[in-house]
Amino acid sequence: MSEVILSENRDGVLIVTLNRPESMNSLSRELLAALNKLVTEISVDKSVRVVVITGAGEKSFCSGADLKERATMTPLEVKQYIQMIRNTFTMVENLPQPVIAAVNGFAFGGGTELALASDIRIAAANATMGLTETSLGIIPGAGGTQRLVRLIGKGKAKEMVFTAHRAKAEEALTIGLVNQIAPAGGLLEAALTMAEKIKKNAPIALEMAKYAINYGSEVDLGTGLAIESNCYAVTIPTKDRIEGLTAFREKRAPVYTGE
Predict the structure, then answer these.
(1) Amino acid 2: pLDDT
(2) Number of folded domains in the chain?
(3) 59: domain CATH number?
């Protein structure tokens, strides 16, 4: 695994760290390739129950594209680069495991888009987030125009994108861009606490709940209910469902295996 991405499995919680602090953890082609490879591996790794994504250091989660590197690219290379970011973030969104973005410091452009592709966002008190691309003569190209709208609503999303607004942690919480703000110095601890709450639940149930929410929210209610029904059906024959019922009857904590 390239050193631009670090990963550590803490008893089922995989901490993924973007590791280019000297460049504010910006998205170089090397980092994107490493992240793409790691996400592919995570998607089939049953030892990973929850993923936490963060950035190295305290200043920046991810400042977005590596603009120095991009300045050397041809138009075709830029197009390929944007496609790689978009595809990689979609892979993050589609991981079967729940994904928590622990946003430390700046998250601009692709940094905010990576957080949007995650399921839950926890911000450090010093976090600042925004889709700032229009100030550079471009638009968000890795899902920002689509995921931000679905998260905070069309009007507020347009305001943020049109003005290239940078929202500090308290504002991000108020508008629903993040789920919570961690106390000073406690970002990773807050993310791990959330991860532990998630991890104690059945892996297949979590995967199906994520699928039902992600895909059901994009269709009409009738179709969404059908998606939910099909996802529920997947959980019925599992050993985990029997374990949940047995543990409840025996008044003990369930031990789920993802089977």
Answers:
(1) 55
(2) 2
(3) 3.90.226.10
Structural domain boundaries, residue 70: 5-199
Q: Is the pTM of this model over 0.70?
A: yes
Q: Are residues 237 and 122 in the same domain?
A: no
Spatial separation of the C-alpha atoms in residues 198 and 50, rounded to whole Å: 7
Q: Is residue 99 part of a domain?
A: yes
Q: Which member of 34, 56, 65, 212 is catalytic?
A: 65
Mean pLDDT of 72-87: 90
Instruction: Taking residues 187-197, report their average pLDDT.
Output: 96
Kindly give, in sequence order, each residue whose CB lies less than 8 Å from that of residue 237, ignoring residues fewer than 6 positions away: none
Kindly state the helix (H) or strand (E) to which residue 73 belongs, with its residue range: none
Q: Mean pLDDT over residues 129-139, rounded?
A: 93
The yes-or-no answer on residue 133 being catalytic is yes
Q: Is 113 a catalytic residue?
A: yes
Give yes or no for a contact between 139 and 133, defined as CB atoms under 8 angstroms apart: yes
8 included as an active-site residue? no
CB-based burial, 39-58: b 16+ in 10 Å, e otherwise: beebeeeeebbbbbbbbbbe
On whether both 192 and 116 belong to a single domain, the answer is: yes
The active-site residue out of 34, 64, 93, 113 is: 113
Task: Judge whether 70 and 78 are in contact, CB under 8 Å.
Answer: yes
Q: Which of 133, 141, 143, 182 is catalytic?
A: 133
The conformation of residue 3, written as its DSSP 8-state character, comes to T
Helix axes of 203-216 and 221-235: crossing angle, nearest 10 degrees = 170
68 lies in the same domain as 171:
yes
